[in-house]
UniProtKB/TrEMBL annotation:
SUPFAM superfamilies: GntR ligand-binding domain-like, Winged helix' DNA-binding domain
Pfam families xref list: FCD (PF07729), GntR (PF00392)
GO molecular function, one term: DNA-binding transcription factor activity
Superkingdom, taxonomy of origin: Bacteria
Keyword Acetylation: no
CDD domains, per database record: WHTH_GntR (cd07377)
Keyword Nuclease: no
Keywords: DNA-binding, Transcription, Transcription regulation
All residue ranges annotated as the HTH gntR-type domain in the record: 13-80
Protein name as catalogued: GntR family transcriptional regulator
Organism, scientific name: Rathayibacter caricis DSM 15933
Length: 219
């Protein structure tokens, strides 16, 4: 795991935020496998810091759905299964199409979303690509004007990314998703809110079908 700080002078990270960032990247890149134990003492040694920021980072990742905390066994990387995926995709289908529709109706700068889409297409690995896709989706819905709706969808972002990289292990479908993302973006650029909503709903639903099929094969 690469622990070199990736900070800028303008936005320095706290120790806790840095550890959370690096562990998130390692989990989504597959460097830390599903079910792998995350031992505070070992991580503190790896990051050359005390156990306190490590413990807080693990709590942060548990809240994001990437880590499981057990009173007796400690922390471990969350194991993705079909039941979890169904819950996440069900929530997204209920909320994300409407959020994107509202954002397009309100109007927003789509340039950052196009940049995220480009970065996803140029990404070296599944983990990095999944993180860029996660950011792309947020850039489409974050102008919906409802902070509670945004926060709810934000709460699903890491779990969606984890489900994605898990599903991609046996079926690399990211090129298909990239085409769907481009269509969604172009609808937003045209200001076609109805079409953007339809495309987001179709995209989430079709990816859910593919991901669930892969997760059931893996189980």
């Amino acid at each position: 795991m690469n622990t070199a700080p990736k900070q800028s002078p303008q936005a320095p990270l706290s120790r806790t935020a840095f550890v959370a960032q690096e562990l998130r990247r390692a989990i989504l890149a597959g460097e830390l496998s599903a079910g792998q134990a995350l031992v505070e003492a070992d991580l503190a040694s790896t990051f050359a810091m005390s156990k306190t920021p490590v413990r807080e980072a693990l709590k942060t990742l548990a809240g994001a759905g990437l880590v499981t905390m057990n009173e007796y066994r400690g922390a471990s990387v969350r194991v993705v299964d079909a039941a979890l995926a169904r819950q996440v995709f069900d929530m997204r289908l209920l909320l994300e199409p409407a959020a994107v529709e509202r954002a397009v109706e309100a109007g927003f700068d789509t340039a950052p979303a196009r940049a995220a889409l480009t970065r996803a297409q140029e990404a070296d690995g599944a983990g990095e690509r999944s993180l860029e896709n996660r950011d792309f989706h947020r850039l489409l819905y974050s102008a919906c004007g409802n902070p509670l709706l945004i926060a709810t969808l934000d709460g699903l972002r890491d779990q969606t990314a984890l489900i994605t990289v898990t599903a991609w292990r046996n079926s690399i479908s990211w090129r298909h998703e990239a085409g769907e993302h481009l269509a969604m973006l172009e609808a937003a650029e045209r200001g076609d809110a109805d079409e953007a909503r339809r495309l987001v709903e179709s995209h989430v639903d079709s990816f859910a079908t593919r991901a669930l099929a892969q997760l059931e094969v893996q189980s």
